Amino acid sequence: MQPCEPSRLAWTRVTLGVDEVGRGPLAGPVVAAAVCLDPDNPVEGLRDSKKLSTKRRIELDLLIRERAVCWHIASASAEEVDELNILQATHLAMQRAVAGVAQHAREIVVDGNRLPELPLPARAIIGGDDRVAPISAASILAKQYRDQLMIELAQEYPQYGFDRHKGYGTRQHLAALAAHGPCPWHRQSFAPVRAARR
Questions:
Q1: Would you kindly state where each structural domain of the chain is located, as residue ranges?
Q2: Is 122 helix (H, G, I), strand (E, B) or coil?
Q3: What is the pLDDT of residues 52-81, one digit of tens each?
Q4: pTM of the full structure
Q5: CA-wise closest residue to 47 among 182, 140, 180
């Protein structure tokens, strides 16, 4: 399917925006969110979650949860990433997110250039997370949820520093992997994790 140009998209309260976070990390789930926004109760300042400060993202996360027509967050575990591969696990997380709120929507817009199998008409939009409000909202909810999960995991596994790098392959994370080996939340199929196994 050809990606849709964002400028041609008019979103409504039945447009379900979908985005994911966490494809690149070495640890943790891939998380997706699906959001229907209410044009009559807008949330100002929506954009790609990666371009927002933590403080602003937390503020917007709360506003989206309060004002959206509906929203749902879902994930695919590290084990599912290993079993399916990261693309298929990402699609699974998106399908789970959509399943939680599909009854409220008539169409779906997804960030990127690939679509999972979905129960409603859907369009893939390159750069949609920064230019299409429902997708931006989904990006914010998914990132805030995943970041908070990784902060909580840091309390259980303090040796890895998950609260600082959120599972991405930073120098600090790679050094911790080399020193301690992987934990159950690591993606065993990813090369740096395989290399650190004892």
A1: 11-156
A2: strand
A3: 999 999 999 999 999 999 999 999 999 999
A4: 0.93
A5: 140
